[in-house]
Amino acid sequence: METMRRRLILTFTASAAALLFALTDLPVWAQGEAALTGTVSSEAEGNMEGVVVTAAQPGSIVRVSVTTDAQGRYAFPQARLVPGEYTISIRAVGYDIDAPTKALVEVEKTTTTDIRLKKTENLADQLTNAEWMMSIPGTEEQKAALLNCVGCHTLERVVRSTHDSDEWTHVISRMMGYGAVSQPIKPQPMLDRARAGTPEQYRKIADYLATINLSSVDHWNYERTRARAVWKSTIRIASW
């Protein structure tokens, strides 16, 4: 038993050391050349800080993202992008990329591709659940009830609906009969659907939902976004 314990300790120590050396060998952003760089700007804001820029090769499931700095500059370290053609996309709520953007990354060269953004014509499509929660009117108690919705679908489905209060009571009762792992394309009914209760017991929240959706208006007047992320000292890189 003691011998096995020592072997495990040695194995763990060796693995930790190998990982440390591997991390030490990784290129540091401030020290290395960029494979792809450029500036993100718009007519409304000029050079834009906090824009997420993503590069992806055609047919690949790998996405590599960086964030623009205070001068609107983005840069992908060479170790993060293999040579080849990339499609560039952005995430900046309230904006769309002005035109399809591609970049060719070459060995030991820096490719410069500036990106121009324009104001989006469909802000609702870009809002996250957090931004919808921030945007919609209502008390904390009323908004808290919406937390039961986001486990299965986005709040955009709620605010885009046209249900009136009477219809909402039945919709909520039906929704409460599904498990938290449900999805719109694959609902998971609970075995004991009686636990969902009766439609009328949801009248209070139904009345509220009818005031924030499109049941009585043809557009919202409360869409707004959060400030973009501000990165003062580091460039964050994410791959997925």
Gist of the model:
With 240 residues, the protein is of the alpha+beta class. Helix content is 25%, strand content 21%.
What does the secondary structure layout of this molecule look like, with pairings?
Blueprint: H1 2-25, E1 34-42, E2 46-47, E3 52-56, E4 64-67, E5 73-77, E6 84-91, E7 95-97, E8 101-105, E9 111-112, E10 115-119, H2 129-135, H3 140-144, H4 156-159, H5 165-175, H6 203-212, E11 238-239
Helix pairs in contact: 5-6
Share of residues in helices: 25-40%
Largest sheet: 6 strands, mixed
Q: How much of the polypeptide forms β-strand, as a percent range?
A: 15-25%
**How many distinct beta strands?**
11
List keywords for this structure.
alpha+beta; disordered C terminus; 2 domains; 240 residues; Immunoglobulin-like; disordered N terminus; 5-stranded antiparallel sheet; 25% helix; 6-stranded mixed sheet; 6 helices
Task: Provide structural commentary.
The protein is of the alpha+beta class. The protein folds into two domains: 101 residues, Sandwich (Immunoglobulin-like); 85 residues, no CATH class. Helix content is 25%, strand content 21%. It is built from six helices and eleven strands. Strands 1, 2, 5, 7, 9 and 10 form a six-stranded mixed β-sheet that branches. A hairpin with a 3-residue loop joins strand 1 and strand 2. Helix 5 crosses helix 6. The longest helix has 24 residues.
